[in-house]
Design a protein that fits this description.
Main location (chain A): membrane
Distance between the termini of chain B: 41 Å
InterPro entries (chain A): AA_ABC_transptr_permease_3TM, ArtM/GltK/GlnP/TcyL/YhdX-like, MetI-like, MetI-like_sf
Largest sheet of chain A: none
Order of helices and strands of chain A: HHHHHHHHH
Number of strands of chain B: 10
Radius of gyration of chain A: 21 Å
Radius of gyration of chain B: 18 Å
Shape of chain A: flat
Strand content of chain A: under 5%
Number of domains of chain A: 2
Number of helices of chain B: 10
Pfam families (chain A): BPD_transp_1
Helix content of chain A: over 70%
Structural class of chain A: mainly alpha
Number of strands of chain A: 0
CATH architecture of the largest domain in chain A: Orthogonal Bundle
Strand content of chain B: 15-25%
Distance between the termini of chain A: 62 Å
CATH superfamily of the largest domain in chain A: MetI-like
CATH class of the largest domain in chain A: Mainly Alpha
Oligomer: heterodimer
Helix content of chain B: 25-40%
Largest interface: A-B, 21 and 28 residues
Subcellular location (chain A): Cell membrane
Number of helices of chain A: 9
Strand order of the largest sheet of chain B: 6-7-8-3-9-10
GO molecular function, one term (chain A): transmembrane transporter activity
Largest sheet of chain B: 6 strands, mixed
């Protein structure tokens, strides 16, 4: 067994743990993608106050924001199959990763909807009116004029959201999927060297978070430069 | 050409338009005057449905729309026959000058990009911005932005251009460049409805003046009639206040 902390094991574990990065990345990409699409939908429902859907959206967003993601993970894992069973769809044979993707996607949609909503309302009314005045439809005005400007306004918050999502993937292992955290745990319990695995995780998470932040700051500067 | 019949509009309990009837002929330049709060801007915005009037009828060319039951299809059709120049320019901040002018053509009217670009260039040349195609709104002065706004309107070749106090937000020394562009547009025979406080423009360029107060059209006529021989007391009061120099000539 030797010492409690062996620096050589850090190097030894690193490739083993990092080899699971694609799974973490998959969760982040799906969560952000689904979050953007679904979040936009929720934001529009709420801004146009669509009957019933609006009330449902409010409830949904406050539920997601008011509960820990680990609770959401297990509610989806156990509850989703029951729900879909009602409409005759059997997903009991689904791999666990799908439940993770659904949870993180739904979770992000709620947060994104709030980001998108405030970003859209930060675009002055005159922009929408000008779009209508040149004969753009509601959807065209949104797509061509409002959203591009809202996107720029929301970019810093959006960046933070991506980093948060990346870090929150660390709970996905609780459903038993073998992402980076799952791998570190598995190695730890096999070798009784838990600490080294978590040190590796800390290094990976901090490095990638910093890279993401830098990327967003850089991208934001470029977007803004383009227009001035 | 353009006709408004019995237009009513209220914001809550505040009635802003109390049954406006208005007829504008093709190629005519109409200036709407009136004290603030008289409903001029609201009337203008009702024409392209930026405000939805409560009641009344709009006839534009061969399109006839009932304000009360206008469908979104009808609204879009009206908007594609009109254009507007705004007080605060409202250029699309995410697009440069030429993209601003092309947007209504390419996205709204599905015109091929090449042709739209040609039209946009012509429009920008006309307003004297040949060297500013690629400039973003934030890189332009107020006067230049408003000229892009005018180019964006004329490029659409609309049945009518609605001008909503186009010089009110400008520095005094930039007003002239915008007014002279508007004068050039007027000379081309484009129908214009202009809400403005620029009396010189109203006197020199307009063919027809409409004076509004408290949601009604109080008086209308040629500039000569309105400015030298106003019939209504309300019109006289307004003109005395806005043209104080006339007091000295007595």
């Amino acid at each position: 067994m030797g010492s409690l902390f062996d620096i050589r094991l850090v190097f030894e574990y690193f490739p083993l743990i990092f080899s699971r990065f694609p799974i973490t990345l998959l969760i982040v990409v799906v969560a952000i993608g689904a979050g953007l699409v679904l979040g936009l939908f929720i934001a529009l429902v709420r801004m146009r106050k669509v009957l019933l859907l609006n009330q449902f959206a409010i409830l949904y967003v406050s539920f997601v924001r008011g509960t820990p993601i680990i609770v959401q993970l297990f509610i989806i894992y156990y509850g989703f199959p029951l729900l879909l069973e009602q409409v005759g769809i059997d997903i009991t044979q689904w791999e666990k990763i799908y439940f993770v993707l659904v949870t993180y996607g739904l979770n992000n949609a709620a947060f994104m909807s709030e980001i998108i909503r405030s970003a859209i309302s930060s675009v002055p009314d005159g922009q929408r009116e000008a779009a209508y005045s040149v004969g753009l439809s509601r959807w065209q005005a949104l797509r061509r004029v409002i959203l591009p400007q809202a996107f720029l306004n929301a970019f810093p918050v959006f960046g933070t959201r991506v980093v948060n999502t990346f870090e929150s993937t660390s709970l996905a292992f609780t459903l038993g999927i073998l992402d980076m955290v799952g791998q570190a745990q598995a190695i730890g319990s096999r070798t009784y060297h838990e600490l080294e695995g978590y040190v590796v995780l800390a290094i990976i998470f901090i490095a990638i978070s910093m890279i993401l932040e830098k990327l967003f700051v850089h991208a934001e500067k470029r977007f803004i430069q383009q227009r001035r | 050409m353009i006709e408004l019949k019995n237009v009513h509009k209220a914001f809550g309990k505040n009635t802003v338009l109390k049954g406006i009837n208005l007829k504008v002929n093709k190629g005519e330049v109409v200036v709407i005057l009136g004290p603030s709060g008289s409903g001029k801007t609201t009337l203008l915005r009702c024409i392209n449905f930026l405000e939805s009037a409560d009641d009344g009828e709009l006839i534009i060319g061969d399109t006839k729309v009932d304000f009360k039951n206008a469908t979104s299809k009808e609204i879009l059709a009206v908007r594609r026959r009109t254009a507007m120049v705004f007080q605060n320019y409202n250029l699309f901040n995410n697009m440069n000058a030429i993209e601003n002018v092309m947007e209504g053509l390419v996205t709204g009217r599905k015109m091929p990009i090449g042709r739209a670009r040609e039209i946009a260039k012509q429009a920008l040349d006309k307003v004297g911005l040949k060297d500013k195609y690629e400039a973003y709104p934030l890189q332009l002065s107020g006067g230049q932005q408003q000229r892009v706004g005018i180019a964006r309107a004329i490029a659409l070749n609309p049945d009518v251009i609605l001008f909503d106090e186009p010089t009110s937000a400008l520095d005094p020394e930039l007003v002239g460049e915008v007014l002279s562009v508007m004068q050039a547009v007027a000379k081309e025979g484009i129908t214009m409805i202009v809400v403005t406080h620029e009396m010189s423009f109203a006197m020199d360029i307009a063919q027809h003046i409409i004076f509004m107060a408290d949601g009604n059209i109080v008086e209308e006529g040629s500039p000569k009639d309105i400015f030298t021989n106003p019939k209504e007391k309300r019109t006289k009061q307004f003109l005395e206040r806005i043209l104080p120099r006339w007091n000295y000539s007595i």
